[in-house]
Amino acid sequence: MKISAWAIRNPIPVVVLFVALLIAGIAGYRALPIKLYPDVSFPIVQVNVTLSGAAASEVETQITRAVEAAVSNVAGVDHVQSTVMQGVSSTTVEFEIGQDAQKSTDEVRSAIDRIRGSLPRGIDEPIVQRFDIDSQPLVTYAVSTATMSDVELSWFVEDTIARALITRRGVAQVDVVGGVAREINVTLDPGRLQALGLTAGQVNDALRRSSVDVPGGRSEIGSREQTVRVLAAADSVQALRDLVIPTGTGREVRLADVASVASGAAERRGFASLNGRSVVGFQVKKTKTASDVAVAREVARGTEELAKIYPDMRFERIVSTADSTQNSYSATLAALLEGMALAAIVVFFFLRDWRATLITAVAMPVSLIPTFAVMSWMGFSLNMITLLALTLVIGILVDDAIVEIENIQKRVERGEQPYDAALHGADEIGLAVVATTLTIVVVFMPVSVMGGFVGQFFKEFGFTVAISVLFSLLVARLLTPLMAAYFMKPSKHPHERKPFQGGYRKALDFALAHRWISMAAGGALFVGSLLLAAALPKGFTPPQDDGIVMLSIEGAPGATLADMRRSSEQLTAKLNALPDVNSVFTTVGSSSSDGDVRAGNVTVLLKGDRSQTTQAFSAGLKSLLLSIPDIRLGFGAKGGGGS
Q1: How confident is the model at residue 502 (pLDDT cuts 50, 70, 90)?
Q2: Which of 21, 93, 128, 642 could form a disulfide with 45 if both were Cys (CB 3.0 to 4.6 A apart)?
Q3: Of 91-95, 295-299, 453-457, 612-616, which has the strongest mean pLDDT?
Q4: Same domain assignment for residues 14 and 52
C-alpha cells in the first residue's frame, strides 16, 4: 500500500503523529537557548604566568621565552604570540584548524608542567585555558555611590554584588572592573626579628608555604580511591596572624609576634569612569550552555533587587551583547513569519483556491516546528546561523506541498472527487517529490560536515536545513494528501483555464521559437552575475549597526596612572561633545597590582536616534583620535586593560 493512500485511509494515526511532533517541537523551541553564534571550539590556548613586581624585561627573559620554547614543541601548533607587561606574561598558542581544542589544551598544560621547575620560584601557578567565545563578558555594569570611598565600593562590589549575582542561573563568573584589590599587608618589626634570630626571607618562605593548596596524592578507603589535598592557605587575617614560624634555635613563634598583619588595599593600578565620573564596574560571564538573553535578564533582575536593598547604590548597564543577540533573533523571527505569509499569498495568487492555499500554508509551520525538537536534542541553539537556515528554507518547505496539492487540484478541476483525486494524485507525483527533497538534503548535508573554522559555524546550518526539509517531505507524503482528501471541495467549473496559463504559454512558445536569443540572454545573465559577485565586499560576518564603538588606548612609555586619567578625561570630554554620543565608559589598567597602567579600553555608546550608522561614526573619529596627546588609540578592545 502506498504511504499517501494509507494516510488517507487511516487519518487518525497520521493526525496523532503530527500532533505529537508539534508538541515535541514546541517543547524543544522553549528549551533552545538564544545565542548570537553557534557553539564553536577554537583551537586556541592561552598561558598566563604572573611574577609580582618583576619588570617586563625580566618577565620576558625568565618566563616568556621558556614558555614559548615549551609550547612550540607541541604537535599541531601553528602560531605562538606573546604579550609581556610588568609582572605578567601572556602567551597565545594557535593550533592548526581541525585540532581538538581540549586535547590541545591538555598538551599545552603538560608542556608547562614540565618546565615548571625551571621558572622563577616567586611565580603564581601558571594558568592554562583555551579560548572560548562564551568566556567573553556578556554584560557590563557600572556602580557608583556618594556614601562610600572607591576602596569601600570596590570591596562592596566584590563581596556583595558579585556573590549575589554568581548564584543566578547561567552566571559563570563576575569580574570587578576598575576597582581596588584587597590584600593583606604584613609589616615586619626589624627589632623583634633580630631578637628572635629570624630573617625576612624565613618569614617570606613561611608565608609562601601557608598560601598554597597542594596535591597530596591518593589513598584507598575500602574499595574506593580518594584524592588527598593538603589545604594550607590561610582563610582569614587572624589565621595568618597565628601562623607558626620556626626559628633557627628550634623555637616557634607566631607571625603576630614579629609583624603587624592587617587587611588593606593594594596599590591602585587602574580605574574605571563613566562620562568622567569615577565608578566601579563588573562584568558577567555566562556558562557555555546558557542562553545569552536569559542570563542577561537574570542579571538585570538581580541588579534591580540589589538596587532596592541598597537604594544609595546606582546601577547603570553599560553594554550587553545580549541586546544584539535579541535584536538579531527578533528581526530574523519577524522575517521568518513574513516569509511564511508571503509564500501563502503567492500560492493563493496562482492556485486561486483558498482551501488549497490553506493546505499548502499548513505545511510550513508543521514542517518547521518539529525541527526545533531535533535541534534541541542535538544541542543546537537559536542563533544567527540556525535562524538563517530556517528563514532560507521557508520557500523550500512549501515546494513539496505545492507539487502535491497542484497535482491533486488539477484532477479535481477535471471532475474527480477530492478523495479520489488525493488518492491517485499524491501517488502519481510521489517519486518526484521524494527525489526533489533528497536532492536538497544531499546538497546541504556536506555543509554540515565541512572542516575548518567556517565548517564549525555552518555545521548547525546544514543540519537544520536538512532536518526541516525531511519533515516537509513527511508532511507532503502524509498530511497534505490527507487534508486534500477531506478538506477540498469538488470543482464548480471543471476544466477552467487559469488566467496566467495563456501568457505563460505565449512566452514559452517565443523562447522555443527563438532558442539562440533565449540562450544568449541566459548566458549574459550568468556572466553578469559572476562579475557582480566578484565586486561584492567580503567578510566573515556583516558589520552590525549596534551603536557600540570599542577603542583601545595606550599611554606613552613611562606614563603614570595620573597621566592616563588626565588623557582619558580629555578623550571623554571630546567624545561627549559629539551629538550622537550617549555615554563613554573607560577602563584603564587593572585592579591587580601587576596591571599595566598604560593600557585600557574605551566603550562609546551611541544614541538610539543617532544621525549616522555605527560604521560611519567610527570612520569620523580618526581625526579626533589624533588630537589627544600622549596616548595611542585604536579601534577594538584590548585584552589587557580594564579587568
Answers
A1: low
A2: 93
A3: 295-299
A4: no
Neighbours of 251 (CB within 10 A): 11
CATH number for position 56: 3.30.70.1430
Sorting pLDDT into bands at 50, 70 and 90, what band is 542? low
C-alpha cell at 573: 570630554
Task: Report the CATH number at residue 449.
Answer: 1.20.1640.10
Residue where one domain finishes, among candidates 494, 527, 559? 494
Q: Are residues 481 and 613 in the same domain?
A: no
Q: Which domain holds residue 86?
A: 40-135
Count other Cβ atoms within 10 Å, centred on residue 268: 18
Domain end, chosen from 461, 494, 527, is at 494
Q: Contact, 80 vs 91, CB < 8 A?
A: yes
User: What's the one-letter identity of residue 158?
Assistant: E
Say which residues have a Cβ less than 8 Å from residue 441's Cβ, sequence separation at least 6: 466, 469, 470
Please report whether residue 327 resides in a domain. Answer: no
User: Within this chain, do residues 391 and 486 fall inside the same structural domain, yes or no?
Assistant: yes
Whole-Å CA distances, 49 to 88, 175, 176, 463: 6, 19, 20, 41
Strand partners, 606: 581
Residue 151 in contact with residue 265, Cβ under 8 Å? yes
20 and 73 part of one domain: no
Residue 342 lies in a domain: no
Whether residues 357 and 486 fall in one domain: yes
Which of 349, 365, 498, 319 has the alpha carbon at shortest distance from 22? 365
Return the DSSP state at 520: H
Cell for 123?
Answer: 611565580
Angular region, 165: left φ>0, alpha ψ -120 to 50, beta rest: alpha
Query: Do 231 and 246 contact (CB within 8 A), yes or no?
Result: no
On whether both 486 and 367 belong to a single domain, the answer is: yes
Greater pLDDT, 525 or 457: 525
Who has greater pLDDT, 135 or 47?
47
Q: What's the CA gap between 188 and 530, in Å, rounded?
A: 77
- Domains: count for the chain: 4
Q: Are residue 59 and residue 100 in the same domain, yes or no?
A: yes
Q: Has residue 312 been placed in a domain?
A: no
Does 444 fall in a domain? yes
- In this structure, which amino acid lies at residue 460? E
| Whole-Å CA distances, 603 to 249, 369, 568, 588, 643 | 59, 40, 12, 12, 14
Judge contact between 585 and 142, C-beta under 8 A: yes
Domain CATH number, residue 251: 3.30.2090.10
pTM: 0.72
Q: Which of 316, 315, 329, 325 is nearest to 295 (CA)?
A: 325
CB contact set of 242 (below 8 Å; sequence gap of 6+): 254, 255, 256
Query: Following CA atoms 270, 275, 279, 285 in sequence, which dihedral angle do they give, to the nearest 10 degrees?
Result: -80
- Do 481 and 581 reside in the same domain of the chain? no
- Cell 487519518 -> residue: 11
Region for 527 from its dihedrals, namely left if φ exceeds 0, alpha if ψ lies in -120 to 50, beta otherwise = alpha
Alpha carbon dihedral 6, 10, 15, 18, in 10-degree steps, equals -30
The DSSP secondary structure of 606-637, one letter per residue, reads EPTT-SS-HHHHHHTTHHHHHTSTTEEEEES-
Q: What is the pLDDT of residue 496?
A: 54
